[in-house]
Amino acid sequence: MANKTKEPAEVPVPAPAPRPPAPNPAQIPSVGRSQAPKIPQRAAQPQSLDAAGDDENQEAWKQQCVAPTADNRVKTEDVTKTKGNEFADYFLKRELLMGIFEKGFERPSPIQEETIPIALVGKDVLARAKNGTGKTGAFVIPCLQKADPDNASIQSLILVPTRELALQTAAICKEMSKHMGLEVMSTTGGTSLQDDIMRLYQPVHILVGTPGRVLDLSEKNIAKLQNCAIMVLDEADKLLSPEFQIVIEKIIPFLAPKRQIMMFSATFPSAVKGFKEKHLPGAYEINLMEELTLKGVTQYYAFVEERQKVHCLNTLFAKLSINQSIIFCNSVQRVELLARKITELGYSCFYIHAKMPQSSRNRVFHEFKGGACRNLVSSDLFTRGIDIQSVNVVINFDFPKNSETYLHRIGRSGRFGHLGLAINLITYEDRFNLYKIEQELGTEIKAIPPQVDSSLY
Ligand SMILES: Nc1ncnc2c1ncn2[C@@H]1O[C@H](COP(=O)(O)OP(=O)(O)OP(=O)(O)O)[C@@H](O)[C@H]1O
Ligand SMILES: [Mg+2]
Fold it and tell me: Which of 50, 77, 142, 451 matches a 20 to 30 Å C-alpha distance to 307?
């Protein structure tokens, strides 16, 4: 009746790839077009208790930490093709290294290797890397490293397009800064302004939020950003779409005059160019996207009539080995309707969209992330940034209108280089769009075979 369970352990574990030799920490990463700044040499560092020092000390502090159980699932080159850096190569504070270690990050992913040294020297950054390859760590680690717990002002502002992503990002900041004595606050629409005002009477070092609420608090002079010298725009292209850009432009004057701006996304349509030239013209550009889709995600389409879609979904549920799935619809009404149909079919399912009360959104997000339910029907609210490691299948019940949305949606599976499956229900009306998206992404979406090989996801 409910779809079959699938344990991550079933996936074959490959032989570990040989690691390239550790680079000289003074070496400048070779990607990007701007002039790279100098990275401090290890020898120039003062001998401090805080700095990651010799190997013996490194081992000693690791003894005090509780690392999560290793995830031994197969990982693709999207995250394994690194230069072999270690987090300790960046002279991070010992307390931060402890948080990173406890988060289960053994060594930096490619985007973290490219970004962290540049971000630490204060350069503006525009970074593009595939979904699920660790962009969050690439900006959170520098923000935490640069934060001074003895300075009670807001020092980093991290903006994201959705409330759930703000909660997720703030939670990562809190986990990683657990030993640092830093205060992290998330602030979003849909919550009590009064609570935020009360909270901001207390010190906050890192503020994570959605643009509307952050602007509101700044204009009321409640969130004081004059000493905030770092602004991160995660999902930058979304934050610079017409609905948000005007708000972002209004927030910038509240920041410290000498501020570092960092923009991250897997997609950077040309619309971002104007903003980049105005606010971060000398930004160091990192683009790790030689190809656009994830190596680990297999994509299929099923050609159906609109009225056959639910039946088709029923067949997919019966045949696939779904660990957790996200099923995307193109409107709020269709999300609710489909969720009802799925429940009638006898499968467990939650649904989420932006028109729901925030308390229900939070509950669904939290419980789905905790594995309380196998399937989630969603609007584009969950298209970007949401990281649920156990999602191995994404179904586009409604095919998206553009390639950016398609890429971000299917990137909810295959997190951190793991395997995943994306299935698209395509109607006669979608056929041109399917072709267009394949062309734009330079990828092939194949017709679904009668049996989907379960070792693919
Ligand atoms: N260095 C690392 N070692 C191990 N796991 C990591 C590392 N960096 C990130 N991860 C894990 O990879 C997953 C994806 O990371 P993250 O959400 O930052 O990706 P992203 O690039 O921001 O993706 P998206 O484009 O979808 O927003 C997370 O579960 C995170 O904990
Ligand atoms: Mg992200």
Answer: 451
